[in-house]
Amino acid sequence: MRILVAGATGVVGHPLVGALRARGHQVSALVREESRTRAPEADTIVVADALDREALLAAVSEARPEVVVHQMSALRVMFDNPPDAFTRTARLRTEGTANLIAAARAAGARRLVAQSISFASAPTGDPVVDEDAPLWVDAPDPGWAATVRAVADLEAQVLGASPELSGAVLRYGSLYGPGTSYARTGASAQWVLAGKVPLPEGGTGVTSFLHVEDAVGAAAAAVESEATGVFHITDDEPAPAAQWLPHYAQALEAPEPPTIPAASAPRLLGWFMAHQLTAAAGASNARAGKELGWKPLRPSWRHGLGEE
Ligand SMILES: NC(=O)c1ccc[n+]([C@@H]2O[C@H](COP(=O)([O-])OP(=O)(O)OC[C@H]3O[C@@H](n4cnc5c(N)ncnc54)[C@H](OP(=O)(O)O)[C@@H]3O)[C@@H](O)[C@H]2O)c1
Prior knowledge:
With 308 residues, the protein is of the alpha/beta class. It has a domain at 2-173 and 209-234 and 283-292: 3-Layer(aba) Sandwich (Rossmann fold), CATH 3.40.50. The chain contains 10 helices and 15 strands. It has helices spanning 13-22, 53-63, 82-106, 142-159, 187-193, 212-224, 241-252, 265-269, 271-278, 286-292, and strands spanning 2-6, 26-31, 44-47, 67-70, 111-117, 128-129, 166-172, 174-176, 199-200, 206-207, 209-211, 229-233, 239-240, 259-260, 282-283. The strands form 5 sheets. Strands 3-2-1-4-5-7-12 form a 7-stranded parallel beta sheet, sandwiched between helices. It has a two-stranded parallel sheet with strand order 6-15. Strands 8-11 form a two-stranded parallel sheet. The protein is globular and about 55 Å long. The structure holds NADP nicotinamide-adenine-dinucleotide phosphate. Residues 7-13, 32, 35, 38, 49-51, 71-76, 92, 117, 172-175, 180-181 line the site of NADP nicotinamide-adenine-dinucleotide phosphate. NADP nicotinamide-adenine-dinucleotide phosphate binds next to strand 8.
C-alpha cells in the first residue's frame, strides 16, 4: 500500500516508517523543512508544515497515499516549556488534523489512522476504563480541559471525516522506551533521579504504559486493518503509582521516592501530575485485541521501564 506518515521524525513516526517499509509498503515521510535532516529513510520525502494548509495539500497529493497516518504533536518541548507544548499540540490536533483530512481527501486516500492519548478520560470511579468512558472535557484544571477538548476535536474529526475516509484513533498509553521522557536520558528520568517526584500517600492513581515498539506495531496493525473507531493502545498491566514509581526509581538507580501527604500533591507537583499519581484511571486494551488483532509484545511495564 502507499502510506504517508505525518510526524515522520517523531518518537513513534520515525520507527514506524521503517516498520511499514519492512512489511512491504511504499512509504512517504512528511517532514517540515527545518527537520529534513532528521527524516527517516523512506520511499519519498515530502515537505510541509501541517499548519500551512496549501503546502500540506500539495505535499500529500504528491505522495498520493491510500492510507494517511497522523503522528504529529509538539509534546517534545514539554519539559522546556509545558504551556507552549500544550498550546502547539492542541493546534496540531484541531487545525493540523483538519488540514491533514482535507489533504487526504483531496489526494484520494481511503483511510486515516491518528495518534491520541489514553489518559484523557474523566474519572468514573473505576481503576481501569474502556473507550466508552467520556473524555474529561470539563476537567477542573483549565489547561488540561483545553487539552482534552482538543483531543476530543481530533477524534471527532478523524471518525467523522467522510464516508470515503475510514478512521481509526489510537489512544496511546504513557510511552516509554527510546526517545521518550521515561528513557534513562529523558526528562521524567531526570526528575526521578533528582528526587523531585515524590509518591503521594496511597499512590492510587493508575497509569497504563506502552513501549514505543508496541505503539509502532499497533499503528502498523491499524494501517492494515479495516476496523474503525477509538482504540486504547496500552499494555496489559495498568499500574497504580505505588507500584510503578518505586520500581522505576529502582531501575534508574535513583533515590527511593519520598512519600508526601496526598493533599499536598497538587501544590508540590502541579495539578496534572498530582491527578496522575492519586486519581487517574488506567485503560483497558481489550477492544484493540479483538478488533485490530493487536497485542502488546511488552505486556508489562515491569520489563523495560527505566532500563533503556
Ligand atoms: N501517550 C503518551 O504518553 C504520549 C503521547 C504522545 C507523546 N508523548 C511523549 O511526547 C514526546 C513526543 O512524542 P510524539 O511522538 O508525540 O512526538 P514527537 O516525537 O515530538 O513527534 C512529533 C512529530 O510531529 C511533527 N510535527 C510537529 N509539529 C508539526 C507541524 N507543524 N507540521 C508537521 N509536523 C509536525 C514533528 O516534526 P519535527 O521534527 O519537525 O518537530 C515530529 O515528527 C515523547 O517524549 C513521548 O513520550 C507521550
